[in-house]
Amino acid sequence: MLRAVLINDLTISRGERTLFSKLDLTLRAGEAATLVGRNGAGKTSLLRAVAGLLRPAAGAITFESANGSVEADTARAEHLHMLGHQDGLKSSRTAWEELRFQTLWTGGTEDSARAAAQRFDLRRLLDLEVRRLSAGQRRRLALARLAASPRSLWLLDEPMAPLDAGQRAAFGAVMAEHIARGGMILASVHDPLPIPARSVEVGA
């Protein structure tokens, strides 16, 4: 289990443009942090860099467990979930096929997938193809993966956007439980998360 993510002196560029530079951030077990800033400031790019999907122009991102440093590829492959703007769902599969496949692929079980479907009020939708789901239903299906195969670090890009007030509160409870178990959340947001979180301004 990861115990910390350390971001040191990080610079992210897009083409010839520097989005931000010399950013330092340490996120430890049991903490949530929100990335705030104007559109285009680099919030999504920072999440992608932590996930290993984007190479920083300068600086370092390292991961630690209770036993010391963890090799970055191992940390990303075994201890990280990322949910971006797109839900990352295959539209031709049924909701259950997609949830089951992604849960097993990330280390969960069929039982944990069914429990997550129940938690996110998806059971009556599981036989429907993903393309027939509404935006809010697809987002709940994507979020269910977080609960179905818990990993230490959740990287979330505007996770609440398509959810109604009740669904936001329900996901807030899931996030609170993850933090209470020693998990970590780093989220790009426009609206505050429904849990206590440190705010980090990007691109100031």
UniProtKB/TrEMBL annotation:
Highest taxon of source: Bacteria
GO terms of biological process kind: cytochrome complex assembly
SMART domains: AAA (SM00382)
Protein's UniProt keywords contain Nucleotide-binding: yes
Keyword presence, rRNA processing: no
Keywords: ATP-binding, Cytochrome c-type biogenesis, Membrane, Nucleotide-binding, Translocase, Transport
Pfam families for the chain: ABC_tran (PF00005)
UniProt-recorded Gene Ontology molecular function terms: ATP binding; ATP hydrolysis activity; transmembrane transporter activity
Annotated TM spans: none
Domain ABC transporter: 5-202
Name of the protein described by the UniProt record: Heme ABC exporter ATP-binding protein CcmA
